[in-house]
C-alpha cells in the first residue's frame, strides 16, 4: 500500500500542502516543530479516523484558520492511495460551524465527514482503506500507561483490518452506555422496572461482548507469536522470552485476586471457541451483577480488560527497564506489520517517528535492516521515517531513500 499524493488544508501547521510521494523509504527531516510528526499524523488520521493522541480532534485544525473571520472552517485531508486492487481517493473533513459554540465548550458545531472516491461514507467505512503501522517515541506509554491506552491500541489496530470487529465493538459500546445509565439510576435508588430492563440489557451485551473478547484473544495470540520471532531474531538474539497476555477485567470485580488475572487470560487465549467465551462472559456478568448495581456501572467486560507484555514471565509494565520497554514496543510494532500482512495480504505503510534517536546502534541497525527488507523488492511498500538529523542513518540506507526536508509547514525534496 502507498500514499501517492497527500493534500492537506488547514491541518495543524499545514495551511496548504500538495505532496507527491514515491514508494519505498521516505525520510522526512528538519528541525523541531516544523511539521514532521504532523505529516505522519495526517496519514494516520486518514487510516484510523483518529489522532494518535487522545486529544480533541478540533486541535487538528490550523490555528490561523480558526482565528480567521469565516462562518465555517474546514480542515481537509486527502490521499490518493495505491492498493493491490483499485486505487482509492480518500478524504476526511473536519468542519467547524457555529464558531461561538466552539470557543465555549470545544464540541459545539464540530463534525467530521469521510469520503471515498468523492462519495460520502460513514466514518467507519474509511477504516481498512488505508492501513498504517505507526511508531511514536511516546509509545512506551503503551506499556507504562493506563489500561485505556492498551485497549485503544487493540481497538485501533483491529479496526484497521477487521470491519466485523469494529461493528461488534460499536454495538457493544452502545448497549454498555444504556446499561451504565440504568445502573447509575439504580444506584441512586430509582428502581422502577429496573431489574427487568437490566436483565434485557445484560443479555444484549453478551453477544457483541463475547465476539470482541474472542477476536482480541486471537489477536493477542497471533501477535505474541510474531513479536516473539522478531524479539528473538533481530533485537535480542535469543536471550529473553517475550509473551503477550490478555487480562480480562472480570478479576477486577473483587471476587478474585490479581494473581488470577494471568491464568484467566491464558484461559481465554486457549479457549477461543465462541460458545465457551459466550458462556463464561454470561456467567461473569451474572456474578458481577450486584457489584454493578452497587457501583452504578458495568464492572466486567471488554471495556475493563487489559493486556500485558511479559519478558521472562514478568509483566514489563511493572518490572521492565526503560530499554527493555523500548525494545519490546519495537518488537510489537514490527510484529504488527507482519500480522497485518498476514491478515490482509498487503503491506501496511510504516510511519516511524524519531525512533532512530532512541535506539542504540545495534537496535538501530536491526530496525533499519528490517524496514529496508520490508520495502525492498515489494512494489507496493512504503515507509516514512522522521529525524532531525539524517546523519543518524547509515549511508547505504540513505541512498535507497527519498529525502524530504520539512520546514515551517512546507515540504521540499532534497537535491544532491
Ligand atoms: N492546530 C495547529 N495549527 C497550527 N499549528 C499547529 C497546530 N498544532 C500544532 N501546531 C504546530 O506544529 C508544530 C509541531 O509540528 P510537529 O509536526 O510536531 O513538529 P516536528 O517537525 O518536530 O515533528 C508546532 O510548531 C506546533 O505549534
Ligand atoms: Mg516530531
Structure characterization notes:
This protein has 416 residues and is α/β, with parallel strands linked by helices. The chain has two domains: 2-131 and 346-413, P-loop containing nucleotide triphosphate hydrolases (Rossmann fold); 140-319, RecF/RecN/SMC, N-terminal domain (Glutathione S-transferase Yfyf (Class Pi), Chain A, domain 2, Up-down Bundle), CATH 1.20.1050.90. 47% of the residues lie in helices and 22% in strands. Strand 10 (306-311) and strand 11 (314-315) form a beta hairpin. It is globular, with a radius of gyration of 23 Å. It starts with a strand and ends with a strand. The structure holds adenosine-5'-diphosphate and magnesium ion. The site of magnesium ion has 4 residues, from helix 1.
Radius of gyration equals 23 Å
Number of strands: 15
Tell me the CATH topology of the largest domain.
Rossmann fold
Number of helices: 14
Task: Explain the layout of strands and helices.
Elements (H helix, E strand, L loop, with lengths): L1 E10 L2 E7 L3 E6 L6 H13 L14 H5 L5 E10 L5 E9 L2 H7 L4 E7 L2 E3 L10 E4 L5 H4 L2 H15 L1 H25 L6 H43 L5 E6 L12 H11 L3 H22 L10 E6 L2 E2 H4 L2 H23 L4 E5 L1 H4 L2 H15 L6 E6 L7 H6 L1 E6 L2 E4 L3
Parallel strand pairs: 3-13, 3-14, 8-12, 12-13
Antiparallel strand pairs: 1-2, 1-4, 4-5, 5-6, 6-7, 9-10, 10-11, 14-15
Adenosine-5'-diphosphate (ADP) binds next to helix 1.
What are its keywords?
single chain, 416 residues, alpha/beta, Rossmann fold, Glutathione S-transferase Yfyf (Class Pi), Chain A, domain 2, 2 domains, six-stranded antiparallel sheet, six-stranded mixed sheet, 14 helices, 15 strands, 22% strand, globular, binds adenosine-5'-diphosphate, binds magnesium ion
